[in-house]
Structure formats: structure tokens, C-alpha cells
Amino acid sequence: MKRLSIILAALIAAPVALVAQEQDAVMIEDTDNSGDFSLAELQTYYPALTEDLFVSIDADGDGAVSEAELDAARTEGVLG
Question: What are phi and psi of 61, to 5 degrees?
């Protein structure tokens, strides 16, 4: 019975951990309400982000990172 309780607790906790990770992903604030992210805005969440890396994430070269570009960088493991 104790083993079943441990297994059930783990199964319940796993989705909670995933939700917490998803919430972290949306905590970047678009401070200027432009609809995308500047280098400075991303550096508040990713302090080690360099200008070169920012440029590589900015796939369309418009000088800002869209939500889609940010998601792609996270999916590809460019950003943690």
C-alpha cells in the first residue's frame, strides 16, 4: 500500500511540474508592449544572452524576437 501511495504521488506531481515549467516560459514581459521582445527584455530572463545569440534567434532579422522565434529557440535548445 505504501508503494502504491508513492507511485500515485509521483503521477500527481509530474503534471504539476510541467505546468510550473510552462508558466516560467511565459514570464518574459514585453515591457514596451510591442508584441515581440528586444534584447534588453530577453536579458532580464536570460542574463547571459549575448547580442550575437539574439541575432541568431531573430530568424527574420527584424531586430526583435517574436513569440514564435522564442519558442523555436527554446525547442531547439538554444535557450534553456
Answer: 70, 25
Nine-digit cell at 45? 530572463
Domain boundaries, the chain: 2-75
pLDDT tens digits, residue range 68-79? 999 999 999 998
Domain at 2-75, CATH class: mainly alpha
This prediction's pTM: 0.66
Nearest to 73 by CA among 32, 41, 25, 34: 25
Cell of 14: 509530474
Q: How far apart are CA 79 and CA 60, in angstroms?
A: 18
